[in-house]
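Revision sheet: structure tokens.
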Amino acid sequence: MCGIAGFVGTGERESLERMLATVRHRGPDDQGIILERGVGLAHARLSVIDTSAAGHQPMFSPDKNVVLVFNGEIYNWRALRKECEGRGWSFTSSSDTEVLLALYALHGEDFLRDAVGMFAIALYDFTEQKLILARDIAGEKPLYWTQSGNTLLFASELGGLLASGRVPKELDLAAVNQYLLFDYVPTPQCIFKNVHKLEPGTMLIVREGALRKKQFWSPPKTTHKLTEKEALVTLDRLFAESVSRQLVADVPLGVFLSGGIDSSAVAVYATRASAQTIDTFSIGFEEASFDESRYAREVARHLGTRHHEEIVSSKDALDLVPNLAETLSEPVADASVIPTLILSRFARQSVTVALDGDGADELFAGYSTFHAEKLFSFYQHLPDPLAALVARAAALFPASGANFSLSYNLKKFTSATENDTFYRHQEWLGSFGRNARSALAGPALREYTRNGNLFSHIDAYKGEMPENDAGNQLLYTYLRTYLMDEVLVKVDRASMHYALETRAPFLDRPLLDFMFSLPYDLKYRNGQTKYLLKHLMRDKLPPHIINRKKKGFGIPLAAWLAGPLRPLSEELLSPSALAAHGLFNENEVARLLREHQSGARDNRKELWNLMVFQLWYRRWMR
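Predicted:
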């Protein structure tokens, strides 16, 4: 795992050094820079595979005609290396980076066709005067890019681009409007104008000033007609292979363990695949409704792992909040970044790599929103007076700061304004729906809340899946939105802040292909989420672990906003702070604060969305 940055066109070494310094936390073990013939590449290395100097980057091909910087891991690099050796290629290192150079020499632009991994890659071919930027199929690793005159610049994080001094800090107000709805700015947009996030499974190819994109992966277009037993056999094999591949490292490795089914499944297969005792890591909270540590301990005992646990105090978490914008150089309003930072810091004391359970909810329909969709179809058909009565009754429920409280869920459920199923799910996951954004918008933002389709990217993702498969279309939109642009961003920035590499076995390419070729009925059946995964694990984990209600990786944010975070929230959302940009209606923000502080309404999500933006604005716009 690493940080990369660079440019093709015109630029100076000093600019590269500033860009590298901004992403150096991602790779503290080694740094490298080349600047030749208008090509500048910088690399900050976290040594995981072949920790010797032979894995140094930027790495050149033997003839010096191709150079590459690479963030991530190619999990099947050994098999790909054998293929290259069979075609006459000789290797001087044991790194997966050198395998990528060999694959490019053999296959050209198709060099990633068989790669299984997570990555952001920048490759320059001096012979063809061509730059290739590429990002993995799930979007686990980030890659930002922009053009400045005749120069294309790229970096692992937005802060790396800004450090070049060539990116104007001009807010994209349409992107701000998207952020308020989704809690993030969807790919390929960015919070700044003319800056882009590279789409997953895609190459950006730049030659003689011309840009083109080439997709090297797309989801399967056919559905396998397998029996449940056949599907379980294949799932078992593919998941075992995925975890086994991702256990390969030349540094200490462990597993994040929450005690939920996703991370527990990873731990099960890791203990089976490893000849050594697996280290597992979890954190617990003083607030009971957010604490899962006893379940993690139970799974660890059941599997015989070497378990590490840290109990987190409110102060531990609150101390991280003021500096979140330094970690998130583009605003992402997911409060679970705080426990993710704490867990990453804790695990990094013992290991360099950690496997996690990310992706299972998207592949197996694990969110409570899938239950909500079934109920909403009933709610929609209620007579208007009765529906209004239900909404009023939901508003009367006393606010609760508990994790996934009934009052909070009812509020989100009844406040949906989108009629389209796919749009409605995104509204449930996010913060400010259509009406709420209209009330919130200040003079500078008002026109953007009235015009435009904020869901055009959802429509595009739907189109990548078969039209007659609405269930998998819905899961795919989750993969391409909430998972990619919120969950994976949160995990990447939090873990890499401490130079910890995280790996997600559920997002392994063969497993991803298989799961999206299975019928939706094997994932969500008769009101049961994660149907197939639960059946896979029923002889491997205690029943109450398998059937536990999903808790998420939350913090007692509602209580903190009315208590220890109150001074910071009032500072960030004060009229003077809001006047710095004029984006938000001061009276509406004051109402949200007042309601929450009095206990009249749980506005934790909306307030956190605004606070993260304000923290980001204060750090990056001034």
